[in-house]
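Components:
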Amino acid sequence: DAGVIQSPRHEVTEMGQEVTLRCKPISGHNSLFWYRQTMMRGLELLIYFNNNVPIDDSGMPEDRFSAKMPNASFSTLKIQPSEPRDSAVYFCASSLSGTHQPQHFGDGTRLSIL
Amino acid sequence: QQQVKQSPQSLIVQKGGISIINCAYENTAFDYFPWYQQFPGKGPALLIAIRPDVSEKKEGRFTISFNKSAKQFSLHIMDSQPGDSATYFCAASSNTGGFKTIFGAGTRLFVKA
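Structure:
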């Protein structure tokens, strides 16, 4: 079975540019999570969708960040405009249902904002 | 109140030894406690998880001990192997108060051959 697929694996862009990260969850999983991992702040939950609906976006750092899940097999995390402090590894994870099921993580997108 | 405190930050263990990682939480609404293992360049992968109605769960060489009254839980890796060298994260989840999953800061384990 294919796991969670994230693209791109690496992204390097200049400050002020729009960045779009993509995620394809495991088929049949109803919940999708976006995380950010940095050395300073560790692994932080940004937003959590259930059945394509955002349930908790309290972790989204500011209005420059937005996430969508137009259907059960695709989600995007967008940063506009990007800033150097957004540099991190961004992970997408999915679970069968909710936060009390194993979350299956993708391999992440390493984002560098110059 | 939403924090999960994990220790130690790093750990070096001899092959065959026992690795012990500890976590503590404050919010009594947390009711699901997973442990994840992460290798460099990869996403975290679930290792083992426990709910607060049991005090211990064992899967192979991995055991979670849970102390509800102390609000602490720990991961024990028996007969540690070099292949266990990775970063380990504890986490806590709640279905109330915002459906949060909070991760600990991580423990970098190195098992010496």
